[in-house]
Amino acid sequence: MLKDKTIVLGITGGIAAYKAADLASKLTQAGAKVETIMTEAAKKFITPLTLRNITNRPVVTDMFELSSEWSVEHVALAEAADVVVIAPATANTIARLAAGIADDMIGTVVLATQAPVIIAPAMNDNMYRNTVTQQNVAALKKRGFTFIGPEYGRLASGKIGKGRLADTLKIIEVIEKVLVKKADLEGKRIVVTAGGTQEPIDPVRHISNRSSGKMGYALAEAARDRGAQVTLVTAPATQPIPDGVEVVKVRTAAEMKKAVAAAVKKADALIMAAAPADYQPKAVAKSKIKKESRESLTLELVKTPDILSEVTGDFIKVGFAAESENMVANAKKKLRSKGLDLVVANDITQADAGFDVDTNRVTLIDKKGKVAELPLMSKREVAERILDRVKGLMGKK
Q1: What's the domain count of the chain?
Q2: pTM for the whole thing?
Q3: Catalytic pick among 56, 209, 330, 360
Q4: Which residues of the chain have pLDDT under 70?
Q5: Is 56 a catalytic residue?
Q6: Which H or E element spans position 134?
Q7: Residue 347, SS3?
Q8: What does the pLDDT read at residue 68?
Q9: Based on the domain organization, do 298 and 358 belong to the same domain?
C-alpha cells in the first residue's frame, strides 16, 4: 500500500514533535519514501539528524538552503508528493495554512501541491477549542483537507483534555485510506450538475432559486481529486470554476437537459446536485416589461423538463431532494419516480444545512431502502461520502 509512495511529512513546533520520529520510521519500514520538512520551532523539540537517519533522506529546514535538492524549485517537492502529512500540526500552523501563507517550506508545499493533505493537530485543549482555531479547521476541511484527531488524554501541561496527537497507527491507517481514495475513480466519467437555473421573463428578469452551486462544485472537485474525468454542467453559481474539469455553462432547465443528455452518453455516473426550476414562463417578452405600463403582472407558468426522469442510460443516477417537510418520505418517492440509484435528502429549513452555507446535513437513501443519516459536516466531506456510495454502486453494475 505504502511501498514506493512519496510522503511529505511536515513537522511543526510542539512537544508531540518527538512522536513524528516513530511515524517516519514506520512509514519508511513500510516502503514509503519519506521527505521530511521541519519548521524552526520543530527543531527545538527534535533534531533534523534524527529524521535524516530514520528516513535515509535529507531533511528540509530552510526554503533557501542551497544544499537541498529541493532548493532550486520549491514546488518540486509539492509535485513529487503522493500525500502531504502535517504531524503534529500546531494551532499556528493550521492558522497559516488556512490563510494561505507560504513563507516557509510547509506552507509553500501545501499551497502548491495537488496531492491530498492530512493534518494531525496537537496542542493545548483550550487552543484547539478556541473559536478561531475551529474556524481555521473548518476552512481547511472545506478545501478538502483530511483531519485526524486530536485525541482526548493527558497533555504536556498535565491537564486532561482534547489535544493529544493521534496514535501513529491511526495516522498511517488514514494515510492508506487517502492514498486508496486518491485514485479510486480513475478511468471513470462522472457528470455533475450545479447551480440554480434561470428561466427568463423578459430580457432583464428571470425566475430562479436560492441555489449557490456549492454542493455541486464540491462534488466536481472531489471526483476530480479522486481521479475521475469530470464534466460539470453548471447553471449560474457563486463558486469559482474548478480547475481540471470540463465545464459546460447553461442558464435554463432546457439548456441543462440538453447538456446533460450529451454529457452522459459515455458517463459512469450522473450526480444531479443542481436545482433546475420546476416552472418557466409560458411566454417570454421580447422587450423589457415596463413597470409604469401596468399595476400588476400575471405570469402563466408551465413545467420545465424533468431532467432526472427524461435523461436515461446505463449509468448510476444520483438525485437530490431539498425538502421542507416529510423529508425521508418525499425523498423515497422521488427515488422511485425518477428511477434513481441514490437520493441525497436534506432539510432546507435548517440554517446550517440549507442554501448559501458551507455545511450540510444529509440523509442518503438507496434503492433497497437503506437510510443513512449523516451528521453536520462540510459540503466537501458530504461530497466524499456521496462519492463513496457512488463508487460502491459502480462495483455492483
Answers
A1: 2
A2: 0.69
A3: 209
A4: 64-74, 155-158, 182, 353-354, 396-397
A5: no
A6: helix 131-142
A7: strand
A8: 56
A9: yes
